[in-house]
Design a protein that fits this description.
Layout (H helix, E strand, L loop, with lengths): L4 H11 L14 H10 L19 H10 L26 H9 L19 H11 L13 H9 L16 H13 L8 H4 L12 H7 L2 E6 L14 E4 L2 E3 L8 E6 L4 E5 L1 E11 L7 E4 L2 E4 L3 H6 L11 E6 L5 E6 H5 L3 E13 L5 E11 L4 E5 L10 E7 L2 E6 L7 E2 L6 E2 L2 E12 L5 E4 L8 E2 L4 E6 L5 E7 L7 E14 L5 E11 L2 E7 L8 E7 L5 E6 L2 E4 L1 E2 L3 E4 L2 E15 L2 E5 L9 E6 L9 E7 L1
Parallel strand pairs: 2-5, 18-22, 31-34
Antiparallel strand pairs: 1-4, 2-3, 4-5, 6-7, 6-9, 7-8, 9-10, 11-12, 11-14, 12-13, 14-15, 16-20, 17-18, 18-19, 21-22, 23-24, 23-26, 24-25, 26-27, 28-33, 29-30, 30-31, 31-32, 33-34
């Protein structure tokens, strides 16, 4: 399981930015509200994306927001050249919006024939206008203006999360909430307003944020140089790379990207599959799915389908690199050498690939699975070498085939700076690729900040490479972080080792455990020699427990945000530390701040390399 952690993390990261919980009875976060209104184009901010949510909203600006929140948002151009009021001439920037709003009966002018476009809009003015958008007239209300309008405005939920009342001016932040509420409010006919515009609204009247993001997303596109072609500036935008927050500078050549212009958000995916192209479905004439490296992938772009067809550049038996989109689909294809550049990694598996060539000839090749420093597992030709799991290799490209070559160890030691940007005398490249690994082939991608302030020994580093500037570009560690294991609590350990005296004996073990709050059990003929309590678990690539080991214990005397003290000794706390309150044999998951007072705390830490020694489990008793 641990050997495939990069692939599993990649799958999670593919879904990361879109895998959002459905909004239930609780109110949406302000971030979600803002992003939703951005996506709908109702309030989009200035050219740098600044929403200026504290600024007051004028009557003209509110008219524009109403049009943007209606089915008439694409008809404003036809209203240009007309002066709807004497103070809103055809030359006024909002003339088209005001005319559309007036023509639909949403807003009115004043008795003197003016609209007063620069006046700030009041709560009651906005309430009356929005009720008209929903189809309500004065006859549907009880009472007189503005009390009747404000009462209905509140009853429909339009004023949820808005504190302004009668006579008070609305800000852009207030309007952001009001228009979000409008989408989930019911029209006079009983329909959810957002649904009448085609937005995804559930039967309970909840906007589907993930679907909104998807509907407003453009892509996929492929960057051949690392530069993205966007229709908006790079100021004040949100960027994700494989689901993690990043910058535009993180994009590499042949990455796949998407964007949402209104949301000013970019999603970059560095997901690839390198291996032998062994099959196409329904055939190589026009493939809709291909098998590369023993795995089948859906082909989603016409260009990729062409390149993998009989007429394209790649044929069955070629080593190719598939460029994968956010859902793991094939967006593009390149030769392994062009798409990957320098590849270093650790062997995690060996397998034989058999396939039929276009001439019907059967070919068999010995392949190795390599977990690479960029987090991608690639399939490389073994070149006839009998590699062992855990071996260091690099990719050598021979006649279009990516061949694994043995990589000699290259040791490094030194103090890591507090920001992770220097190891000893060497700079760390901004786009450095780092994995921690062990001799059994377990690997995990880590980031420079994870090594901050560590004192790396020679034994902590298996290999490093430098870029053209002399900075560290690739780094393979030797179980230096303790992050390769899974941490949990053994709640029951029954071990039987019985010798019958006639040359026969029985070995069996049953181990019950808690792992991140989830119960599990391991049974079999293996004895791990452990006892009840916190432990580290290591897994084989088939998901079976390879080993267990109890963790050393400390008595915690004080707690801070990032560390704990045990007497005079300081221990850093792992980001994913598990905290439990123990009552007898029962464990309840909690967090560190909840047990900082009134409890006796026992900490359990890993014993890995220089960047290890972090507290992984805390058990609190009253």
């Amino acid at each position: 399981m641990k050997k495939t952690i990069s692939a599993l993390l990649a799958c999670c990261m593919l879904l990361g930015p879109l895998a959002l919980p459905a909004r239930a009875a609780s109110a949406p976060s302000q971030q979600m509200v803002e992003q939703t209104i951005r996506m709908m184009g109702i309030i989009t901010g200035d050219e740098k994306g600044d929403m200026n949510l504290s600024g007051l909203v004028t009557r003209a600006q509110f008219a524009k927001m109403m049009v943007a929140a209606s089915s008439h948002k694409d008809t404003v151009g036809s209203a240009m050249g007309i002066s709807p009021f004497r103070d809103v001439t055809y030359q006024h920037w909002a003339a088209g919006y005001v005319k559309v709003a007036v023509d639909n009966g949403w807003v009115n002018g004043y008795m003197d024939g003016t609209f007063r476009p620069d006046n700030s809009i009041t709560t009651e003015e906005a309430a009356a206008a929005l009720l008209r958008m929903l189809g309500y007239t004065s006859a549907d209300l009880t009472g007189s203006y503005p009390a009747a309008q404000l009462a209905k405005y509140q009853a429909l939920g339009l004023g949820d999360n808005v504190t302004k009342g009668q006579g008070q001016y609305l800000t852009r932040g207030d309007c952001m909430n009001i228009f979000y509420n409008l989408m989930e409010a019911k029209t006079k006919e009983g329909q959810y307003y957002g649904a009448t515009l085609g937005y995804p609204v559930s039967e309970a009247g909840v906007l589907d944020y993930a679907q909104l993001v998807s509907d407003g997303m453009e892509g996929p596109y492929i960057t051949e140089t690392g530069s993205l072609n966007l229709p908006f500036s790079g100021d004040n935008i949100t960027v994700y790379r494989n689901g993690a927050s990043a910058s535009l500078a993180s994009a590499a050549a042949y990455d796949v990207y998407y964007y949402n212009e209104n949301l000013r958000t970019v999603w970059i995916y560095h997901n690839r599959a390198t291996g032998i192209y062994t099959a196409a479905s329904p055939g190589t004439a026009a493939p809709t799915a291909v098998t590369v490296g023993g795995n089948q992938y859906t082909v989603s772009s016409s260009d990729a389908a062409y390149q993998l067809s009989d007429m394209g550049a790649f044929s069955i038996g070629d080593t190719v690199t598939l460029l994968l989109g956010m859902n793991g689909e094939v967006v593009g294809v390149q030769s392994a050498e062009v798409a990957n550049g320098e590849v270093y990694g650790v062997v995690t598996g060996i397998e034989t690939q058999t396939y039929q060539t276009s001439t019907g000839k059967s070919e068999t090749r010995q392949m190795v699975q390599v977990a690479c420093t960029d987090g991608i597992t690639r399939q490389l030709d073994s070149g006839g070498v009998d590699f062992k799991e855990g071996a260091l290799v690099y990719a050598n490209y021979e006649d279009g085939t990516a061949v694994a070559k043995s990589l000699s160890s290259k040791r490094l030691s030194g103090k890591v700076s507090s920001d992770g940007k220097r190891i000893g005398e060497l700079e760390v490249a901004e786009d450095v690729q780092i994995i921690d690994s062990d001799e059994d082939g377990a690997i995990k991608v880590i980031y420079p900040s994870r090594l901050a302030s560590a004192e790396l020994e020679n034994t902590d580093v298996r290999f490093y490479a430098l870029d053209s500037t002399g900075a560290i570009s690739h780094l393979i560690l030797n179980d230096a972080t303790g992050d390769l294991g899974a941490y949990g609590i053994i709640t029951s350990a029954e071990e039987i080792d019985e010798d019958y005296g006639d040359g026969n004996w029985t070995l069996s073990g049953t181990y019950e455990y808690l792992l991140n709050g989830q119960q599990g059990v391991v049974t079999g003929s293996t004895i791990y020699n452990v006892k009840n309590g916190p432990a580290v678990f290591y897994y084989d690539d088939d998901g079976q427990v390879r080993s267990m080991k109890n963790l050393p214990e400390i008595t915690i005397t004080s707690v801070s945000d990032l560390s704990v003290m045990a007497g005079n000794q300081k221990y850093l706390v792992a980001d994913e530390v598990q905290v439990y309150i123990k009552d007898g044999s029962h464990y309840d998951a909690t967090n560190l701040s909840a047990v900082s007072q009134g409890y006796t705390l026992k900490g359990y830490y890993d014993q890995s390399g220089s960047a290890g020694g972090r507290v992984r489990i805390v058990i609190a008793t009253r």
